[in-house]
Amino acid sequence: MTIYPHQAERLTQAIERDALGALVATSPENVAYLTGFRRVYDLMPPDPVLGVFTRGGVALIVPAAELSAVVADGVGVDHVVCYGRFHGLLRESASPEVRRLKAIVAGGSERPGDALASTLASLGVESGAVGIDESGLDSMVWQGLVERLAGCKVNHAARSLAEARRVKGPYEIDCLANALRIAEESLDAVIQVLDRGMTEREAALLYAGEVTKRGAGAHCALVTTGANTWIQAGRPTDRALRSGELVRLSVGCSYKGYWGSVTRTAVLGEPAPAVEASYAALLAAVEAAGVSARPGAPARSVFEAAVQSAQKAGLPDWQPPHVGHGIGLRSGEQPLLDAVSSAVLEAGEVLRVEATHYEVGSLGLAVGDTLLVTSTDSRVLNRSRHDLIVLD
């Protein structure tokens, strides 16, 4: 994937705002944002992958062991640089991929710091301030990069990149919408067969299979039933669903690196009046958050609207730590929708709004929607209804 104009614009704004000559990404999501490259697995030892953005171009720096994947994928950046030893016979070949790989290996460096320094120099950055994303590096690698860039002032840049990623472009919104669609369709397939005797683990595995069939990666399939629903981050177990019990479903998937997430609650049989009342209060919170989410609104006002609505609707003591966050290349991104956030919402942000209620030891309820902040208000991207699901 070539960097899109929207992303280039956001990154240019970041380096101009922070007076930087370059931004260096290190976390998987930040590297993907700058370059489109997503590594398949972490190497041992855990050598870093670096994405570099400057006014003069974009570069990707990878361990030599991952170079063949970069070349085969045709990653569309201005410069690809490798470091470390390349393993493999480099015979003469007419293949443009092999010729490109040989040329990159020939210009490679021994260590990541050397590769970064030479890449910055080739992009015209040999002094001034450089922002390095600290979130994807251990302390030893960070120190090695800083020492190698002795001629530059090195700043922490994780916050700058997180802010740049907040507002999504058309390609990103399309990927997020597709991820959400796949998650909803896959969850619906599970709900259609949820019945007495099905275990949490069986439901989670069924969801993962449905996601895979639709061309996405399954993640975060939390399925809890009955007395397990109060366990906020409970892993699916072999507990079987019984008549009259609740099912709390919090599932996600990734499509082209972008996340979709769905949270729903179901009940096998007739719901108890108290459950219906509490769930209605959560729905009121989610709907109030959607009404409040508009460009120019403080993120904390979305939180406040949700809390006030839930309290008035029947949960007077409801005080969650937050009611959602951004979603994108990670399942949880900035801004956080809580009481102390200083963020102001912008058009193009995609928000994951969620309301939960737990009664420790007995039950848990949850519902969530995904919102796109438009130029005037916000729009729900979900296609599925968020009512309490009653299973026959």
Main traits of this protein?
about 400 residues, alpha/beta, Creatine Amidinohydrolase, Chain A, domain 1, Creatine Amidinohydrolase, 2 domains, 6-stranded mixed beta sheet, 11 helices, about 35% helix
C-alpha end-to-end distance: 46 Å
Share of helical residues:
25-40%
What amount of the residues lies in strands?
15-25%
- Which CATH C-level class of the largest domain is it? Alpha Beta
User: Mind describing the biggest β-sheet?
Assistant: 6 strands, mixed
Rg value: 24 Å
Name the helix and strand elements from N-terminus to C-terminus, one letter apiece: HEHEEHEHHEHEHHHEEEHHEEEEEE
Based on helices, strands and strand pairing, what is the structural class?
A: alpha/beta
Please name the CATH topology of the largest domain: Creatine Amidinohydrolase
Q: Let me know the CATH homologous superfamily of the largest domain.
A: Creatinase/methionine aminopeptidase superfamily
Number of β-strand runs:
15
The number of domains is 2
Global outline: globular
Mean pLDDT over all positions: 95
Counted by DSSP, the helix tally is 11
Which stretches are low in confidence, meaning pLDDT under 50 for 5 or more residues running? none
Strand order of the largest sheet: 4-3-2-1-5-6
CATH 2nd-level architecture of the largest domain: Alpha-Beta Complex
